[in-house]
């Protein structure tokens, strides 16, 4: 679990944050503007590729993507299906 | 009773002098938008009235009166003038929706500079193309966007000043960079306002076409006449309203109706710079008792998707008028808003080039869900036969939406691109590039674009710009970019790609290409789908047949393929 969390956190930092910016597992991503609704699509593709899952479009909401912890919660619903 | 009244009455003997009189403007007078939106309101006795209610990330809240925005505009104008910025110099505003963005807009105009607002999510290449084209002399930005400017500044010899509004003293400033803090600057009570006249240039917004690089749409100070009256009649803003325009001033809605319209009327407006979520938006409306809300179909459809339950968690009864812009508003969204808010969203149609609302469903007029409404008084709007370029009289027949030029906020040209500007006019009509029909009651019904430009979430994306950027990726051999249908954004970018030898298609490469474009151009331009192909469909002369790929995406007839290259 910790590995997934850290993997996602590192990916978000490397792809969406500016140099020197940091986030915690609970930092807001969408409501803080780090990730916008268009960029969310590339984050979704990353999750689907990395964890070999398919997240239905209606579940990929700004609320479900608003922190690393929330994303992990979403991924876990599909990871062993 | 709405400001507008009855359509039939308003179109009789309409003249833009109605707005000129209300703004006490006479032909030949000084006309400076920066002054009209702040100093004039103060002179009207509203200096202490709230002009701006701002909420940013982390719940930061700020309020500014009209006197505050007047003085802040003076401070910024004075600062720019002391740097040597002169009238008609281009000053780019490259900031998130922070107060300095709105106040710099006023400050730049007050000294006669041409303000060039750009969407802060643009990547360095999108930024470079627009700054180079405008030969921009100064850019006002935030520390968080500085790295993008630093990457391109050496290729921009005209860019003399990089002004950072939130510079942290511990970080080192580099070449051409200047720190500026609005709140630490001494107030400037009186500023000599640049004596702009009606035709003095004011704002330069960039928009995308099918071919070529983005075009700078030049507006003039006289645009305020149309922006004032359309705000009053279409958005129905009244003295005690609390208004929220959700658009970013990097795009034309965010300046015409997110700054000039409401502030020229002396109306309190709200700005939320905290990303999108249904919860955040509804809470913002509730907290600020917003009465008039101007948003976009993409946002409305996203709210619909978030469900009805969350709407009921908030008392949104303060809302009295709703409007929408950016792309056609589907009838389901109109019906949903009636169900949830007790009133419909009123669709408005206009463009960067028109500067003001052209066709709309007016307050008090029957709203036909899914229709664009009727032309604003004084606007001659028609659909033209696409071959003869003559107005179509027959109801329901599809043609090109066109307008007779002459309204106050019409663009004056494309920056340094007379050829493209001329292409927009045929037989004395301005061609919008959109298609529609008109029904027997005079309502317009949107059909689609007349070119390959992609309208994603209300923003135009040029396939040419994305294709050019894709070719810079080491794996991409050839590319073709088209619109793909999307439930929320109406259209999104889809890229068809052939790979160079040595590269293999796969999900990781797809993601890499998506992120490459997101960072280089913008999240809007990022392909939301990538399809790898062995070869792209081409004509015998080697031109990529984009329309074939478009037809495939939309399930349309492929049409004549006689020019298709044979194997």
Name of the CATH homologous superfamily of chain A? ACP-like
Q: Beta-strand percentage of chain A? A: under 5%
Computed structural class of chain B: alpha/beta
Main β-sheet description of chain B: 9 strands, mixed
Q: Which secondary-structure class do the elements of chain A indicate? A: mainly alpha
Report the top-level CATH class of chain A.
Mainly Alpha
CATH topology name of the largest domain in chain B, in short, is Rossmann fold
Average of the residue pLDDT scores of chain B: 94
The total of helices of chain A stands at 3
Mean pLDDT of chain A: 89
Distance between the termini of chain A: 16 Å
Pair of chains with the largest interface and how many residues each contributes: A-B, 24 and 32 residues
Round the Cα radius of gyration of chain A to an integer and report it: 12 Å
**Uncertain runs of chain B:** none
| CATH architecture call of the largest domain in chain B | 3-Layer(aba) Sandwich
Q: Main beta sheet of chain A: strand number and arrangement?
A: none
Low-confidence stretches of chain A: none
Description:
The complex is a heterodimer of chains A (81) and B (567). Chain A has 81 residues and is mainly α. Chain A is 49% helix and 0% strand. Chain A is built from three helices and no strands. In chain A, helix 1 packs across helix 3 (68-79). The longest helix of chain A has 15 residues, at 2-16. Chain B is an alpha/beta fold and 567 residues long. Chain B folds into two domains: 7-436, 3-Layer(aba) Sandwich (Rossmann fold); 454-554, GMP Synthetase, Chain A, domain 3, CATH 3.30.300.30. Helices cover 30% and strands 23% of the residues of chain B. Chain B is built from 18 helices and 27 strands. In chain B, the strands form six sheets. In chain B, strands 2-1-11-10-12-13-14-15-16 form a nine-stranded mixed beta sheet, with helices on both faces. In chain B, strands 4-3-5-6-7 form a five-stranded parallel beta sheet, with helices on both faces. In chain B, helix 5 crosses helix 6 (99-110), helix 7 (124-134) packs across helix 8 and helix 9 (223-233) crosses helix 10 (252-264). The longest helix of chain B has 18 residues, at 66-83. The radius of gyration of chain B is 23 Å and the shape is globular. The model of chain B has no long low-confidence stretch (mean pLDDT 94). Classes of the chains: A mainly alpha (81), B alpha/beta (567). Chain A binds chain B through residues 15, 18-19, 28, 30-33, 36-39, 41-42, 45-46, 48-49, 57-58, 61-63, 66, and chain B through 57-58, 96, 121, 144, 147, 273-280, 302, 305-306, 456-457, 487, 492, 507-508, 510-511, 514-515, 518, 523-524, 526, 528.
